[in-house]
């Protein structure tokens, strides 16, 4: 059968095959020193890019504070044994259980702490780079392999989620493995390769529910190309997905209310913005985003003008189909009313997006100019990633710094902390033991610490109750603290404290020491 009839991606070119499966030509002319030089020439870019990925992810792994979801994982999900953790996943999370099961073991083995909490995600992010290299090689050859791996290694969005104690890093890795296994099964549908795809696809589904949107075009393409032979491989992840339905129903969309509160058009705008400048890139302004976009547009336009080879055209079409499924299907469902479209849930689609850009920008006929444009994009990504490491305004909120400030309290056992909803878990993590004050109750305190971030209410700075006066006002990298103290204990209701929050952000919460006194 012809390549078009079988749906094969195409045999990797000689230069790509060297690091993936051995090389012919110069790589097999002899042994000894010549063979070693050839192997080094084939492998050194991948080694360098994987090392770069490790440095970017590990060097600053613990430098940023845990933010709400990470701290919630540590304080409320991973507590107790593995069984308790899995029960917590069913009742307080909205993600499949694989990452939590692995994270429970890693965190317990390493003794806790922010670095231990994030290490699994970092290792997954590093491992994604050689997988991305292999994806690029399968799709279009060595040039695409190098550029795909370079983009994945340096992309500020992928680095961000490689440093977050949540399931996204594992989601990116398992979805990328599924894509690689799909490409190899598409080229040569042996039983082993189809089984590998079924396994990788199942792991992706067990990592994140949004993996289904990436898998749909893969499964359909496999069945279209290879018929019944591929149907069993496609059926396995379908069965795994069906087995997850009871868990999905038990979770009930927990913690997704914020999605509907974020304007749909703003979420659509955030999807390309996240990829171009990172999760917090909006703080840099649209000018930086436009500059990076111009590099992408110039590279894509030049690649299309020079024209892709038939193999590159096919590889680009496959990458576009997979990325399109991962992005377009959730958008379509949101339009139809099933709105779970959060840009971060699309993070795994950024690997096939990177492969697509690599194929077009670094197409064989673009020569050195194409590689130069691809290199310029990688440099832009690196600059943005490093900027996040150096600039607190681009980092997660400094709840650790704020907690350090709050430790200086003169009345730590007789105080209330009023904070935004997303501040409760970080403060519980950094200032144990705290608990959320029950609605309708009251507490007797000598200190009230009001914390949050802009925009502030006009009443910020006013005393929360008679007898209190403002004793301190501080700003910790954008997190603001107003500290009020009283010479004698005062009973204040939970409702009065919540209504006196300093910030305009809705859903404030009140934290008190676990052993503090309270009245009904």
What would the principal axes of the Cα set say about the shape?
elongated
Report the uncertain regions: 1-8, 10-30
Query: Helix count?
Result: 23
- Radius of gyration, taken over Cα atoms and rounded to an integer in Å: 26 Å
User: What structural class should be given to the helix and strand makeup?
Assistant: alpha+beta
Termini separation: 79 Å
Beta strand %: 5-15%
What is the ordering of alpha helices and beta strands?
A: HHHHHHHHHHHHHHHHHHHHHEHEEEEHEE
- Write down the oligomeric state: single chain
| Largest pleated sheet | 7 strands, mixed
Q: How many structural domains in the coordinates?
A: 2
Strands, total number = 7
The average pLDDT score comes to 90
Question: What does this molecule look like?
Answer:
- Strands 1, 2, 3, 4, 5, 6 and 7 form a seven-stranded mixed β-sheet that branches.
- The model is unreliable at 1-8 and 10-30 (pLDDT under 50).
- By secondary structure, the protein is α+β, with helices and mostly antiparallel strands.
- The chain contains 23 helices and seven strands.
- The chain folds into two domains: 22-394, no CATH class; 399-519, no CATH class.
- It is elongated.
- The protein has helices spanning 3-6, 14-21, 33-58, 68-77, 82-92, 98-110, 114-140, 142-154, 156-162, 168-187, 191-207, 211-226, 228-243, 245-251, 257-261, 264-277, 286-306, 310-336, 350-361, 367-390, 399-406, 424-430, 494-499; strands at 415-419, 434-436, 442-452, 469-476, 479-493, 509-513, 518-519.
- A hairpin with a 2-residue loop joins β4 (469-476) and β5.
């Amino acid at each position: 059968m012809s390549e078009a009839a079988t749906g094969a991606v195409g045999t990797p070119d000689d230069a790509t095959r060297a690091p993936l499966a051995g090389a012919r030509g110069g790589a097999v002319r002899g042994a000894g020193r010549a063979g070693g030089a050839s192997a080094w020439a084939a492998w050194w870019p991948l080694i360098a890019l994987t090392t770069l990925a490790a440095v970017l992810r590990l060097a600053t792994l613990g430098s940023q504070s845990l933010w709400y979801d990470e701290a919630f994982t540590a304080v409320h999900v991973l507590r107790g044994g593995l069984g308790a953790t899995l029960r917590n996943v069913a009742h307080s999370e909205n993600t499949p259980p694989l990452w939590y099961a692995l994270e429970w073991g890693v965190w317990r083995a390493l003794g806790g702490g922010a670095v231990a909490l994030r290490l699994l995600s970092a290792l997954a992010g590093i491992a994604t780079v050689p997988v991305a290299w292999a994806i690029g090689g399968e799709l279009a050859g060595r040039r695409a392999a190098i550029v795909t791996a370079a983009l994945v290694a340096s992309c500020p969005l992928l680095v961000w989620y490689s440093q977050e104690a949540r399931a996204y890093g594992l989601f990116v890795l398992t979805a990328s493995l599924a894509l690689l296994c799909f490409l190899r099964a598409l080229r040569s549908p042996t039983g082993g390769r189809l089984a590998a795809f079924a396994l990788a696809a199942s792991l992706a589904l067990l990592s994140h529910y949004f993996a289904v949107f990436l898998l749909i075009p893969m499964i359909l393409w496999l069945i279209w190309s290879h018929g019944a032979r591929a149907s069993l491989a496609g059926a396995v992840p379908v069965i795994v997905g069906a087995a997850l339905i009871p868990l999905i129903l038990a979770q009930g969309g927990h913690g997704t209310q914020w999605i509907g509160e974020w304007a749909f058009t703003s979420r659509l705008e955030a999807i390309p913005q996240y990829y171009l400048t990172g999760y917090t890139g909006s703080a840099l302004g649209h000018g930086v985003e436009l500059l990076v976009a111009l590099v992408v547009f110039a590279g894509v336009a030049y690649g299309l003008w020079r024209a892709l080879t038939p193999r590159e055209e096919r590889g680009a079409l496959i990458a576009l189909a997979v990325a399109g499924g991962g992005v377009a299907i959730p958008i379509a469902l949101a339009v139809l009313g099933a709105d779970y479209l959060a840009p971060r849930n699309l993070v795994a689609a950024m690997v096939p997006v990177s492969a697509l850009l690599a194929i077009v920008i670094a197409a064989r006929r673009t020569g050195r100019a194409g590689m130069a444009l691809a290199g310029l994009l990688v440099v832009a990504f690196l600059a943005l990633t490093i900027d996040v490491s150096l600039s607190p305004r681009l980092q997660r909120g400094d709840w650790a710094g704020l907690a350090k400030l709050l430790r200086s309290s003169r009345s730590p056992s007789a105080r209330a902390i009023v904070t935004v909803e997303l501040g409760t878990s970080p403060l519980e993590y950094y200032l144990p033991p705290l608990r959320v004050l029950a609605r309708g109750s009251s507490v007797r305190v000598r200190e009230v610490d009001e914390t949050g971030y802009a925009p502030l209410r006009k009443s910020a700075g006013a005393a929360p109750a008679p007898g209190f006066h403002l004793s301190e006002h501080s700003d910790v990298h954008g997190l603001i603290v107003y500290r009020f103290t009283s010479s004698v204990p005062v009973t204040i209701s939970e409702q009065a404290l919540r209504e006196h929050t300093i910030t305009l952000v809705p859903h404030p919460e009140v934290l008190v020491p676990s052993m503090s006194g309270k009245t009904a």
